[in-house]
C-alpha cells in the first residue's frame, strides 16, 4: 500500500443549478437517500449529500451566483453514443455508479420508465473501438450512460470480471503527445 490508507471516495462534489430539482432526481428518480444538508454561511449557498452506496456520497453545491455550465468545456457536450465526450483539463467528465452485473440490463428500462433518456447497455472490451455487440470473455465492464437535469454525465457500471496485471498495458501520454 502507498503512503495513505484510502477507504474509497468520501464524496464527489458537483454543482447544481436548482437544488430542489437535484434532490428530486437523485433521491426521487435514482433512489439515493439524502443524508446531510448544509446551509452555507452568509447566504453563500447550500451543500447536500446523497448516499450512493458502500459509505460513499455524491454531494452537490448550490451557489446563487454560479455561472452556467458550458457544454464541451465544463461537461461533455454529448453522451458517448451521440458525439465527442471531450472536456477541458481539470473538468469532471462523468460520474460512474457501481451496480450489480446481474441487474444492469434491467436498469435501462427502470431509467426509461422514470423518463430518463439513456443508452442501451454498452459492453466495453479491449477491441480497437472498445465496444462489443455481445458479452464475451473480453468484456470487462458493462455501462449505461445518461445525464442529470443539469447535464452532468452519469454512468451505471458493472464490472464483469476481476481486473489483473494484464489490464495495465498502456504508456501514459503527456502534454507533448497532444501537440503531435
TrEMBL record:
Residues spanning the membrane: none
Residue runs in coiled coils: none
Database matches in InterPro entries: Glyas_Bleomycin-R_OHBP_Dase (IPR029068), Glyas_Fos-R_dOase_dom (IPR004360), GlyoxalaseI/FosfomycinResist (IPR050383), VOC_core (IPR037523)
Pfam families noted in UniProt: Glyoxalase (PF00903)
Domain annotation VOC: ranges: 8-159
PANTHER family given in the database record: GLYOXALASE FAMILY PROTEIN, METALLOTHIOL TRANSFERASE FOSB
Protein name per its UniProtKB record: VOC domain-containing protein
Native organism: Ilumatobacter coccineus (strain NBRC 103263 / KCTC 29153 / YM16-304)
